[in-house]
Amino acid sequence: MRDITDPRVLRAMAHPVRLRLMNELALDGPATATELAERVGESAANCSWHLRQLAKFGFIEEAEGGVGRNRPWRWVPMGNRWGSPDDPPELMQAGSQVTATLLGHELGLRNRWDEQRQTDDTPWRHAAFGVQNVNWLTAEELTALEDELVAVMTRYNQRITDPASRPAGSRPVRMVAWAHPNPS
Predict the structure, then answer these.
(1) Kind plus residue range of the DSSP H or E element containing 2
(2) Residue 53 pLDDT > 90, yes or no?
(3) Secondary structure in 3-state letters for 19-75
């Protein structure tokens, strides 16, 4: 897990195109800027520029087998953490930007799932879920809950980088969780 303490790193991740590029590389493996451009609906030149920015901050790297402009990129599997309550204001602001971008991206994908749910395979239609809850907790209990959720949500992370470990019929499943005290 990488603790991000440089606001430039967070701002590099906060761009919607960059998030889509990282997702494509994480889910579908190495690809060139041209291949990614077709998948995300951007120009190859724009994708190439964003890929170089992601590489500059260690989110992706060049994969083997490329030459010149036809070089593939791959995602660097690493968790990222930011948002300490003691962070300086500039880092807090950059963290808020990337969090908003990430949640917007995830909400968009969630809404797309809702649109296609009725036409999807029956097991997936019934397996997907949403949960919302409010509870009374202490700060210590909330910290323990975070540890439990992270353990559950990362249990199968090796399958991201090891396609051979993916069971037949498995699909990428997106999970999002957040918890905070009710604002006053």
Answers:
(1) strand 2-3
(2) yes
(3) HHHHHHHHHHCCECHHHHHHHHCCCHHHHHHHHHHHHHCCCEEECCCCECCECCEEE
